[in-house]
Amino acid sequence: MPMTAEDIDEVLAVETQVQVHPWTRGQFQDSLVAEHAMWLMSKDDALVGYAVTMNVVDEVHLLNIGVPTEVQGKGHGSALLSYIIELAWHSSAKRVLLEVRVSNLPALALYARCGFKEIGRRRSYYAAFEGREDAIVMARELA
Known about the structure:
Layout: H1 8-18, H2 25-33, E1 37-43, E2 46-56, E3 59-66, H3 76-90, E4 95-101, H4 105-113, E5 117-128, E6 131-141
Parallel strand pairs: 3-4
Antiparallel strand pairs: 1-2, 2-3, 4-6, 5-6
């Protein structure tokens, strides 16, 4: 279901739990104002995932995705990512793009399972506790 401003507190609680450098309230609010696609996934009335995407011409860019720690490894991330890919396909996008920290091995494995391939790197893209960290740019081509 679509995310609204009323959902930001709940999403922020997960974001700060699962991200090394989490988005701020302002970043989520800015995405709402910019009308980025923002999605929530729930099970039994509990939040099990969220995602933020931005459409750019014929591509969908995954800006943020998160699954609460306590429900990771149960297929929610794959299901949410599959939903995003399906929405992109229905919008006639040619591919889905994302950046991921080189150190985020669980996310890299998830993206690979969902058909994403590395297409490049962005040097020193992310803030890190000691300096900067590279991002791997990945794409999932849509038929």
